[in-house]
Write a structure and sequence with these properties.
27% helix; Rossmann fold; 22 strands; four-stranded parallel sheet; 414 residues; alpha/beta; eight-stranded mixed sheet; single chain; 2 domains; binds flavin-adenine dinucleotide; globular; FAD/NAD(P)-binding domain
Length: 414
Amino acid sequence: MKFDVIIIGGGLSGLTASIALAEAGKEVALVSAGQNSLHFGSGSFDLLGFDEQGKAVSEPIAAIAQLSEKHPYKKVQDVEKLAQQAKQLLEKAKIATFGDTTSNHWRITPVGALMPTWLSVEGMVTVQEPNQMPWRKVALINIQNYLDLPTKFLAAGLRERGVEVDVKAFTLPELQALRQSPTEMRSTNIAKVIEQHNLIASVADEVNRLTSNDYDMVLLPAVLGIKSNAQADQLLQLIKTPANYVATLPPSVSGVRIATLLRKRFTELGGTFFTGDQVVEGVWEGETLKGVKTAKLDGTVLEANHFILATGSFMSRGLAADYTHVYEPALGVDVDDLGLDRTNWAKIEVTDPQPYMEMGVKTDANLHCERAGKTIANLYAVGSILSGHNTIKRLDAAGVDMLTALQVVHNIVK
Ligand SMILES: Cc1cc2nc3c(=O)[nH]c(=O)nc-3n(C[C@H](O)[C@H](O)[C@H](O)COP(=O)(O)OP(=O)(O)OC[C@H]3O[C@@H](n4cnc5c(N)ncnc54)[C@H](O)[C@@H]3O)c2cc1C
């Protein structure tokens, strides 16, 4: 089987590259092993939340210009233009977002902290300024026995900022059935039950029963709409007070929906998806990657003119480590381990910048990978597998994923 481009890894970066290449008329295959990091996300896309001094960023484009040369954004030719393309790509996949590159807005985390972000999916609660909360009084409405919305922390975070918060909860007989096992009272199961039993009107009745005009805002856990935003939108319309969703602890229904809609868009564009399979080795001819072998295709070589490595960081096994070194397990490309020995990979204080977070595969200015010190002209890397940045300290994950993917698509199509 031969394709124009094979993408390895189906997280946000791999899906972005796959869709953009399919839109450009390329014959594309995507091989992805398992769940991706979107399943943990907040429903917001971060571009650059904190600069290298740790200061919150309000104007991301200006702050990106100040980043050090090793940051992956320095390999993106026009950050602003590609950020607009990224937003359009999401829109075409039916992922409606608000926000732009002129100024960050702030998302509210499940534990009540505020984080600067770039785009948020419609319906999610955000504020423009962290020190000017737009509400006097908020009703925080949970589902009884749903533990992945830590309402005490969330309410405390809002109260610290001067907002009066009432915490309430409701249930429905169909949701009670989920209580048989604590592990089943999870966001994705709640979403399925509400959808299968068509419970939107009943949920709206419960929320309306618990709230009144006295509240400026009703906050609900983002546990609706795995396949589309339709039911989540409908619920907000049926609630008599202004209402929004707040991110929950994982699994994230918003993240699962984003992943589902991106995959759908890719297959609708004619892309080939090898799902649940894993690239286990490359077939090399000198410094050219001719093909890849996967765990399930029994020796069949998937060939392509170009390859994109989008296998994520340690959590997704795009990077791996043993007692002595950090390595890239699928194709054996070179990794920048910052020249550190094992004792210095991590800092004891968990909130300190962790050196291992900056490790990743080495790339040249055009995002080509290296193998044994030699540039591989037909193999690129994108997303969180790239070295040179700390996504937790910079809050730049989705931006790096999508913009490096779009830059590589540009490099290939050009
Ligand atoms: C808890 C949590 C919350 C987050 N919240 C946010 C947020 O609110 N906003 C934000 O912008 N970012 C957030 N992020 C970060 C963001 O989700 C990730 O940076 C980003 O999704 C990484 O995308 P990726 O495509 O590089 O890799 P991943 O999403 O990790 O995907 C890599 C994929 O490659 C597959 N794979 C690995 N090896 C192989 C192989 N050999 N063959 C085939 N497939 C393979 C994996 O199974 C996986 O599906 C969060 C991350 C976490 C962990």
